[in-house]
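hiii so my PI (J.) wants the whole complex modelled not just the main chain, which honestly fair. so below is everything: two entries, each one labled with what it is. i double checked the lines twice but i was tired so who knows lol
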Amino acid sequence: MGEVLLEVKDLRTQFSTEHGIAPAVDGISFQLEKGKTLGIVGESGSGKSVTSLSIMRLLQEPAGRIAGGQILFKGEDLVKLSEKEMQNIRGAHISMIFQEPMTALNPVYTVGEQIAKVFMVRQKMKKKQARQKAIEMLALVGIPSPETRVDNYPHQLSGGMRQRVVIAIALACNPELLIADEPTTALDVTIQAQILELMKNLQKKLKTSMIMITHDLGIIYEMADEVLVMYCGQIVESGSMQEVFHHMLHPYTEGLMHSIPRLSDEAEELSTIEGIVPSLYELPKGCRFHPRCPYARKLCQTEEPELLEVSPGHCSRCHRYSDMWKEG
Amino acid sequence: MEQEKLVQVKNLKKYYPVGGMGKKKVAKALDGVSFDIYAGETLGLVGESGCGKTTVGRAILRLISVTEGEIWFEDQNITNYSEKQMRPLRSQMQIIFQDPYGCLDPRKTVYDLIAAPLKLHGLKDREELRSRVLELMEEVGLRADYIDRYPHEFSGGQRQRIGIARAIAINPRLIVCDEPVSALDVSVQAQVINLIRKLQKEHGLTYLFISHDLRVIKHLCDRIVVMYLGTIVESGKKEDIYRTPAHPYTKALLSAVPEIGSDMGKTRTILQGDIPSPIDPPEGCRFHTRCPVATEKCAKEIPPCVDLGGGHFCCCHYCGNDSENIR
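here's the output for the full assembly
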């Protein structure tokens, strides 16, 4: 087992709203080893993005806050850091790529200025040197003729190019951890293929660890070493990519896999997961998935299942693997 | 057997003026697109942003005017029909939009929303209206007690069901589905796809299904048209397009889809560069700037549309039988 870079222990993130308290992330724990990619998959409202915002400490306070748990980054608990201390972590040690490359960039600065800024702030470089470094970064992320592109404004670039710039900014200080939140969702499929390829190559080159958040199981399959499946703020299944995809344990994972139409599949009807994701304010009692679960029994309506290690390193939050189930 | 052609699109062109005053530039959103939609089938229109797929859908419904070319619906040339002439045809052709948030009036209840097309087409009796609305709601899988609720009380999938109920309310023949499931979560997406399919069987609907998602298109469509930058690059039966794609763009598009359980990722053809602007599209074959097998000829000559047999067409200089050695 490699060196653990990030360890999240029982993280709880809540949002207080006019409807009450929404437990967006409700007690999740996981580890990320150095150089590895962790894929987090889930639908809207599963808490996958809030997890990443919690790690970056970018929650909109005071509405959103970390209510409990630890985020240990190289042994240091990020939850306890002050905003100022956190600023030294962001960008330098942990970076983030957002979904929408247009809103992640500032429209009134050239892309060169935005990349150079990172070097000027983090590494106290002079303007000229920082600009030179910005050009190098643009070349690294595969932007053609970086010497001229450096003076472009974001609107002059295509969606794919902008996402490359965002990646350049994120990787500028060679962070140890890169969090990518749906980095290709806004892009066309041929451009998505380019960006995923770029991210894979850069990861190999720079040995960055990565958390890849997406709703697309196909992307997880290609990119991730380890997988977390989230539902209603909880982890419902976790394990290595091979294990989760080939020996899935949780009914929700099963449902997700079967509801995607595949290129290699000729089925007439897609199997679906009945119903919709419940609201965080009215979570079902017992197992959160039970109203939609084809296997649900009485037990599931009353008892909340725990995340059980079913086989080494492969966990599932489902009663079917508990002793209670076997007893009937 | 000769199938009925419900819609015929002939050499359709749509140019948008751009660049403001004085400059005479145009964006060629569509540049000579022709295809037929047979009654009862689902025709898939697939391509990336800016390929013109949405423009085609809107043009067929005459929601936008066209620069050149013809649109035939049943046996009428509707290309230059006035609003008034279109009126009786509107009940025959409907649309389901991508964004279930933007396309429903937030101040109207489900009843108002679904009853609106019925009222427009002459149903007046209140009792009858209500029972018809309830019938439609059941058909698309909405609970009857939702009838007086407002759109904001629903999830994306349920809103899309309302949109679908509106579209099928007046028994149209053709429904243009413009990315109807793209904004939905996967588990809900599957429900809506199954619904769209079920309704087709029950009502004998004809669909023009527009999507960027090759997985969804494969699942739903009988025939497929692949577009790139305002032109058709390949068209044919689903089996032909997915099993033996002929155009290098179709091949790249298929290989770019991240698939579970496939090792395609390792041998993927990744297209270089971006989609060019429709304002200044490349000369010759529009795809040549990104094509992995382009030659000098491709930069100069517009490729012919080659008939590969069985209704499979491909617009490429090198997709005929005699070109195997070049590949």
